[in-house]
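Running co-folding for 1HE.
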Amino acid sequence: MPDLPGSLAAEVDGDIALLRLARPNKRNALDDPTVLGLEIFFTRLPEGVKAVVLSGEGTHFSAGLDLSELRERDLAEGIEHSRMWQSVFDKIAFGRVPVVSVLHGAVVGGGLELACATHIRVAERSAYYGLPEGQRGIFVGGGGSVRVPKLIGAARMMDMMLTGRVYDAAEGQTIGLSHYLVDDGAGLDKAKTLARAIASNAPLSNYAILQAVPRIAEAAGGNGYFTEALMAAVAQSQDEAKQRLRDFLEKRAPKVEKE
Ligand code: 1HE
């Protein structure tokens, strides 16, 4: 594992890595060293790691931007600071491996932006979601205005930001902020189970899912179909795909079953 700031803790567990926001006394508020630490973690991930579980220590996932770090910035510095967050969160969203996040307590501001950059979100019942930027006199800056509307629509995001509306875990599940909703304390185990399932997929399929699906979803008309066809052909051409298809046809692979 690369050297990380004290506000992050990481360990490898087989073919998955467990990454924790580890600043519980500050409710895992995201200061610059933490955000840059995320970049170090995701760019220097050991080769054998095929999926990551991201969680937060203490009573909350993350209180968002560390407001004590907000200082007088001129226009250019302000833009650069937001671009830095965007670039780090983009490395997560368009990285090498899928990331499953475990959400509990406050998932607010930049904490929600971080959660939305992960690929699968497991919420515990204690989770709640807010975008208090309006109340704080600032704006989202970690890609939230691009990612959040894709999950819940621009109208709901505007409501959250304008009125300070907070969604609880059940509402968050209904509107699409989380993929899974589990009891308090059960999130990490659920996320590890999902991460292990993800890690057992063919790596090129996972890579194509991460890189191609969001781009195809945004592509205009026929461009999406063509990109999909290219990706399908690339994935199928791999020996691993051929082996997996043979395994199924020769009754060695599991069927699709409901839980
Ligand atoms: C913080 C932060 C923070 C807590 N920056 N220090 N985010 C917000 O507007 C959310 C602000 N935080 C809160 O609303 C609450 O702290 C929580 C609901 C998250 C948690 O409440 P609670 O009662 O569990 O903890 P607390 O007593 O409020 O906070 C404990 C300590 O953490 C306290 O410090 P202490 O030195 O007095 O012990 C708090 O000051 C500190 N703390 N949250 C700095 N956010 C790229 S742009 C993104 C823009 C945004 O993210 S805006 C949203 C910012």
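Result summary
The two ends are 34 Å apart (CA to CA).
The CA atoms of residues 147 and 251 lie 40 Å apart.
Job closed.
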